[in-house]
Amino acid sequence: MNLRDIDVFNAIMLSGGAGAAAALLDTSQPAISRSLAKLEAELGFSLFDRIRGRLVPTREGQLFHAEVKANLVGLDRLKLRAAQIKEVGAGSIRVASLSALGHGLVPRAIAAFSRKHPQVRISYQVRTSNVVRDLVASGSFDIGLAADEVDTSGVLHSVFTTPRAVCVMPENHPLAGRAVITPADIGEEGFLALSPEDTVRLAMDRIFAEEGIHPRILVETPYGVTIAILAAQGLGIGLVNPFVIADKMISGIAVRPFEPAIHFRSLILRPPDGINSQLVSDFTAELYAARNQLLGDR
């Protein structure tokens, strides 16, 4: 028994005859008759009596049609649910981000996405890049943003953004009067540094070594936002991803370009199965829109 034969039977019951059913289903009357005969043979009873060229439902046909209608209602629900899934995915989305993008850029994307999809539940976590990678690789999260030093085996990945590092310091710091900060300016200043394994920290160490500069490191941390907060507290000077200080979330700091240029590099990660719902596509678009907006505001 196949769904096409059931559709033919239902069309005959609704339209009152084989000719009308053929028009309803955009097929030929002989095809309708063959489908009906096949269904009756499979069921083992007649669905219609043939009286003077007309199809009159038998008692069995009427009982069977009641079951068909009930099941077609369920099928309509499935079609409706399929349409909803096509439009908004499964109704939830799971996002993880490294800290540098997790407090300014991603919340912007979440807010914009939620205004367009208020019915969608968002699970959001700010974690270290290695944890973000693991969450995405396992399929536990749909989208991840991570630094480029993570192991990218087992995930789909592409470059998301490569902003230039900026120097942050207390707003009353003597170097705040400079238009650009160089390694020579930092000299023996108290320095707030990223963790030794960070790619920007490694690039910074190389530049300082080439210049013969040995900054006095006060704090090492994996989080640029921590460096910016400590700078606001008057502790020292440091290099951060400009997205860390997006929307002027941290007051009391001065921000200056650093030369030579050092670039942060973050990746957007997807699970290895590569399944892409409309939800994921829409949220990814909001991430890129937030990135472009913040870069344009600088």
TrEMBL record:
PROSITE patterns: HTH_LYSR. InterPro entries: LysR_HTH_N, LysR_subst-bd, NocR_PBP2, WH-like_DNA-bd_sf, WH_DNA-bd_sf. Keywords: DNA-binding, Transcription, Transcription regulation. Pfam families: HTH_1, LysR_substrate. CDD domains: PBP2_LysR_opines_like. SUPFAM superfamilies: Periplasmic binding protein-like II, Winged helix' DNA-binding domain. Signal peptide: none annotated. Belongs to the LysR transcriptional regulatory family. This is LysR substrate-binding domain-containing protein. It comes from Bosea eneae.
